[in-house]
Amino acid sequence: MSTVSSPVRGAAARATATPPPAPPRRGPGRGWRVTPWLFLVAPLGLLVLFTYVPVANMVWYSFTSWDGMAPVKEPVGLDNYTRIFTDPDMFSVFLVSLYYLAGAFLQLALALYFATILSFRTRVRNFFKGIIFFPYLINGVAIGLVFLFFLRPGGTLDALLALVGVAEPPQWLGNPDLANISLASTSVWRYMGLNFVLFLGAIQSIPNELYEAADLDGATSWQKFRFIIAPGIKQVIGLTTILAISGSLAVFEIPWIMTGGANGTTTFVIQTVQQAFEFKKFGLASAMAVVLLLIVLLVTWIQRRIFPDEKVDLT
Amino acid sequence: MTAVQNPPRAEGRPAPTPGPFEGAWLRLRRGVRQLHPLLGPVAITAKYASLVVACAAALIPLTTVFMAAFKTKEEFATSDPLTPPESWTNLDNFVTAFIQGGMVRGFLNTSIILVVALVGTIIIGTMTAYAVDRFDFRGRRLVMGAFLLATLVPAVTTQVATFQIVNGLGLFNTRWAAIVLFTGTDIISIYIFLQFMRGISRSLDEAAMLDGANRLTIYARIIFPLLRPAIATVVIVKGIAIYNEYYIPFLYMPSRDLGVVSTSLFRFMGPFGAQWEVISAGAVLVIVPTLVAFLLLQRQIYSGLTSGATK
């Protein structure tokens, strides 16, 4: 794939550098100005209709007290925003994100560890790679049910603990002190495989000569990691960290399926969905969505500042 | 690996060294190096041990559900989750899940949505990539920017407002809601096509144009067939995503008849609340197609995800 993408930059540069002269064309000169738009009508229409109009509407709704049905949208100024940051019930969902954020960093660390050791010579490497990666592909609802079964009282985890002599295990999902940890761990189980495969791909795209040279110099595995692998995959680490941070704010499926937000496991997105579709508070829900969007944009912006746009090309 | 990172402190060996601090450091390094032949097997054992633990962590939750799916109601109530079922041919739970649980309908709806949305995505994506890569026109940068900016907007945030639009179009509670949203908001596919198209030589277009082909013919007859590898990537990556999608069908297709794989399985929790053997069978039914696809298409899945996830 890298062979494909290197002419890419050349082509792109050519396309932007040259002034728009007439390429060899036939027929009336006006035709070629209209043609690209004919190809773009449908894609742009869908893009505007399902991405930009919703964002604009969302911002508008967020300053109203709209219930989703009334013909009039009563403006309320910044009330919705004040409520998000002052009402403790609203604000507490941000704290739930911290569990997933911690989980995300654990997930990145585990992924990096397994990617590194599997990048060295390993028996049945593809077997290990496949098993570690496979959970990522599984349907989210199925994962939710699998882990409800795993964590329920008398379930798999309790049976395993009984084997090592733990007679009275806690309620993994019923105990509010533990529920978020259990859910965040499920999330780590689900997503670690993706980070792992991304890291492994990046490590394996480092030219082999570097390792050979390091071998000649008698480098240890740690030195290879520190001086070859780590710098080589800095970009991917930056990118996946951002994805992990915005992902931990946008958690929905796992807590929704497994606890429905009970026992203090309501996340920001669950809260938004409930406000909008159960309590019909579209104004408030929109304001929450705007806040989430702004946080994600901020995090992305910070990432661009820290890891300026050297081309990330993993493939 | 851990063993290498934290080498056991070696006994100080006599070494002529300058400063006390650097001396200790040098001695330590020399000690580690002398221990190297010994350290190797320890590190390798630690490495394989950690891999085995990871595999167990990945497989045990799945295996116990798989075993539970073959147990009878009585057997499930009395046996430990870790004991295998008495009979591996007891398929009653799968039958219940398929028929009573509505999984037949779920697979049918998912298939319909999958096929139509994939065709739509491929047409939309290739057209966009063709227009943006092969034409120089005013507004080209703006168009690129519009698509690029949209990748930053997480779909999960905008559903509150998207809902109103889908509703306004009269698509709520129809399969079209999911189809249109899967087709219209997929920017990653556009990037996969765009990246691939840049590798297709423009001289092909130019030669065809000299032969009198118009733009539509070039797109349909030359570019589209050459994009086949990229189409395969999009079909795989997007196909898995659609098969697994829960949020959109949950929000836009609440009707029972429109249950897809995810939402049908989710509904198991109500009527089969305490029947874990049936719920397990449902989960296994949903996981098996993914497993088959993974075993057949490993390579394409890995490379497709790497090209999709990082754009």
Give an account of the 3D structure.
The complex is a heterodimer of chains A (315) and B (311). Chain A has 315 residues and is mostly helical. Chain A has two domains: 1-61, no CATH class; 82-306, MetI-like (MetI-like fold, Orthogonal Bundle), CATH 1.10.3720.10. Chain A has 14 helices and no strands. In chain A, helix 2 (31-61) packs across helix 14 and helix 3 (79-86) crosses helix 14. Chain A starts with a helix and ends in a 9-residue tail after the last helix. Chain B is mainly α and 311 residues long. Chain B folds into two domains: 2-68, no CATH class; 97-309, MetI-like fold (Orthogonal Bundle), CATH 1.10.3720.10. Chain B is 74% helix and 0% strand. Chain B is built from 15 helices and no strands. In chain B, helix 5 (103-134) packs antiparallel against helix 14. The longest helix of chain B is centred in the first third of the chain and has 49 residues, at 20-68. The relative contact order of chain B is 0.11. The model of chain B is unreliable at 1-17 (pLDDT under 50). At the A-B interface, helix 1, helix 2, helix 4, helix 5 and helix 6 of A face helix 2, helix 5, helix 6, helix 7 and helix 8 of B. Chain A: Residues 93-303 form the ABC transmembrane type-1 domain. Chain A: It comes from Isoptericola halotolerans. Chain A: It is found in: Cell membrane.
Distinctive features:
heterodimer; A: 315 residues; mainly alpha; MetI-like fold; 2 domains; B: 311 residues; 15 helices; flat; disordered N terminus; MetI-like_sf (chain B)
Provide a short characterization of the protein structure:
Chain A is mainly α and 315 residues long.
